[in-house]
């Protein structure tokens, strides 16, 4: 018998609900490109049209574990975002500036 999520949640302790909320928040902060695209409510075909490439090429890119930063930037921008590359150290984070590309730089290069 299937139970509604609200019914299951109501049986959880406040501590369990908080852990679940934290885990859900973490999952939203970390996800593969395919899940990010889906969360942005885009199909591979829609993203392919924006990127002016084929749907199989988008599928292939989503499966890659290693790609150019410029390729990743194009995908993220096509989904409406901006890519930032950061290094995390115990004493703080640092944005790596050589991977930060201003739109003005791209216009000047064309």
What's the CATH H-level homologous superfamily?
Answer: lambda repressor-like DNA-binding domains
The CATH C-level name is Mainly Alpha
Order of helices and strands: HHHHHHEEH
Shape from CA axes?
A: flat
Structural class: mainly alpha
CATH architecture: Orthogonal Bundle
CATH topology label = 434 Repressor (Amino-terminal Domain)
| Share in β-strands | 5-15%
Helical proportion? 55-70%
Unreliable runs, pLDDT <50, ≥5 residues?
A: 106-110
Order of strands across the biggest sheet?
1-2
Mean pLDDT: 86
User: How many domains make up the 3D coordinates?
Assistant: 1
Short description:
By secondary structure, the protein is mainly α.
Helix and strand arrangement:
Elements: H1 5-11, H2 14-29, H3 33-39, H4 44-51, H5 55-63, H6 69-78, E1 86-89, E2 92-95, H7 103-109
Antiparallel strand pairs: 1-2
Tags for this model:
434 Repressor (Amino-terminal Domain), 7% strand, 58% helix, mainly alpha, single chain, disordered C terminus, 2 strands, 110 residues, two-stranded antiparallel sheet
Structure description:
With 110 residues, the protein is mainly alpha-helical. The protein has a single domain (12-109), classed as 434 Repressor (Amino-terminal Domain). 58% of the residues lie in helices and 7% in strands. The chain has helices at 5-11, 14-29, 33-39, 44-51, 55-63, 69-78, 103-109; strands spanning 86-89, 92-95. Strands 1-2 form a two-stranded antiparallel sheet. A hairpin with a 2-residue loop joins strand 1 and strand 2 (92-95). Helix 4 (44-51) packs across helix 5 (55-63). The longest helix is centred in the N-terminal third of the chain and has 16 residues, at 14-29. The protein is flat, with a radius of gyration of 19 Å. Mean pLDDT is 86; it is low at 106-110.
